[in-house]
Design goal:
alpha+beta, five-stranded mixed sheet, four-stranded antiparallel sheet, 11 helices, 36% helix
């Protein structure tokens, strides 16, 4: 039997907190909402979305879209006919959230329509939010684009002047080649003109709030040195994968221990530490190569073969590391040393063996 002791104040505090928690659960259970929760004190544009079970990826994407003013302005309009049931459900969410009459919206109807249109999102499992967002934006773009096209003839005319590749709203457009005179360079004004023309061509058949608000275009330029042709290729994009700065890099602290001969040379650096920034997936060789590029001396250059990476273990034993070892297998909690090793039996590159005297190394002259 386990006995616990508490003061009267603690008991009152716990009971009060428990009662408040129970009242809150009875009032609203966010994960088990079966209907919309109305409120006379609601605020426009501020509304919760119920979680139907691992549908947080849907809620996160929709909340971002609900805060996008250009998209909200278009979907709140009622002057165009929406044929896609998914778009009707999406428009209904925007209207209800903007009304300020709801605290929480139940998304069961939206999820059912979504499941029919895209079954992979209907299994109540976790999914990538960006993938869902891409699907929604493509659906909105296609529906709005249909409402803006007035004739099939204009669509065919635009399609004949462009080269569409890939899928969805991201299509590839190749512009006419530009001929330059020998020695002539492409200036910013001419590029801007071509850029605007490419974007205008794309918007003729693809203009919507999605393309004008959430899309950009890549520009690829290929020039020929012989015939002076410059080829411009444009590719609209909506999502861009960018590396996070320094996310794949690691800062390695390295202690440099030069050879005895180098330490004797006047003006050369003594033992010191260096900070080496390398890729996390790299090896010790990457650390060494980058370190040697950082290391410079006035009197001589360091020979890579004479530098070894090592760690001191067990209070004094030097463990020379294999340069091929990946950083993930190195215990970087221990100090890492870069040690210059010079063969004692041969003349070093730092000192002229013929001119070495006992005085130069601090010993008395025995002559």
């Amino acid at each position: 039997m386990i006995m616990t002791f508490q003061t009267e104040e603690d008991a009152i505090f716990k009971n009060t907190a428990l009662n408040q928690s129970q009242q809150l659960e009875q009032t609203i259970k966010l994960d088990q909402i079966s209907t919309n929760i109305h409120s006379n004190a609601g605020i426009a544009s501020i509304c919760g979305l119920s979680n139907l079970g691992n549908t947080c990826f849907i809620n996160a994407s929709l909340q971002c879209l609900l805060g996008t003013q250009p998209l909200k302005k278009v979907l709140m309009q009622t002057d165009f006919q929406i044929k896609l049931e998914f778009m009707k459900q999406l428009q209904d969410i925007f209207v209800k959230v903007e009304s300020g009459k709801y605290l929480v919206l139940h998304l069961k109807a939206f999820h059912q329509v979504l499941s029919k249109l895209h079954p992979v999102f209907g299994n109540f499992k976790q999914h990538d939010s960006q993938e869902f967002l891409s699907f929604v934006l493509n659906s909105i773009h296609d529906e709005l684009k249909k409402s803006n096209i007035t004739s099939e003839q204009s669509e065919e005319k635009v399609s004949s002047t462009t080269d569409w590749i890939t899928n969805g709203v991201a299509k590839r457009l190749k512009m006419d080649k530009v001929l330059l005179e020998p020695g002539q360079e492409v200036n910013s004004k001419s590029l801007q003109s071509v850029d605007e023309r490419a974007w205008s061509h794309y918007l003729v058949n693809n203009e919507s709030v999605i393309s004008t608000t959430m899309q950009g275009q890549f520009q690829s330029i290929v020039s020929c040195d012989k015939c002076a042709f410059v080829s411009h290729t444009y590719e609209p994009f909506m999502f861009l994968s960018l590396p996070i700065p320094y996310a794949m890099e690691r800062d390695i602290v390295l202690t440099w221990v030069p050879s005895t001969e180098l330490l004797l040379l006047q003006g050369t650096p003594s033992i010191k530490r260096y900070s080496v920034l390398v890729n996390k997936d790299g090896s010790l060789k990457d650390v060494k190569d980058k370190f040697l590029k950082m290391l410079t001396t006035d009197d001589s250059s360091i020979i890579s073969q004479n530098v070894v990476l090592a760690q001191v273990i067990n209070g004094g034993n030097v463990n020379i590391l294999d340069e091929r070892t990946l950083l993930s297998y190195v215990n970087l909690k221990k100090d890492l040393y870069a040690i210059e090793v010079v063969q004692p039996s041969s003349c070093t590159k730092y000192l002229d063996c013929d001119n070495v005297t006992n005085e130069s190394i601090g010993k008395p002259d025995t002559k």
